[in-house]
Amino acid sequence: MKDGPIDPLVCPISYTTSIVGGKWQWVILWLIYSEKIQRYGQLKKRLPTISDKVLSQQLRTLEHEGLIHRQEYPEIPPRVEYSLTEKGKSLHPILELMAAWGSQHIPRG
């Protein structure tokens, strides 16, 4: 390996974390992956410590990166559903491995 700065366009780990690197992004992806479709309120209920502002930002980022699809329905009250895109679904092996690793290593009281 060469010394010097890591180029995210060359290093696959650096590239992945540049796309999905936020504190909440992996958890949001896991929740959507687990349930197939999630509404904003469902995500907020499952993540009570996240602020509305941060949740909205994270969802916008994941949508911008092409990992989730936002479907808005013209109803009153408005209904918005989030699901994984094909690109997002391609992360499922990583999500499963992260969940398995966490289950194995989570501190037990």
From TrEMBL:
Name this polypeptide is given: Transcriptional regulator, HxlR family
Keywords: DNA-binding, Transcription, Transcription regulation
Molecular-function annotations in GO: DNA binding
A Pfam short name: HxlR
InterPro entries associated with the record: HTH_HxlR (IPR002577), WH-like_DNA-bd_sf (IPR036388), WH_DNA-bd_sf (IPR036390)
Top-level taxon: Archaea
HTH hxlR-type domain sequence ranges: 11-109
Membrane-spanning ranges: none
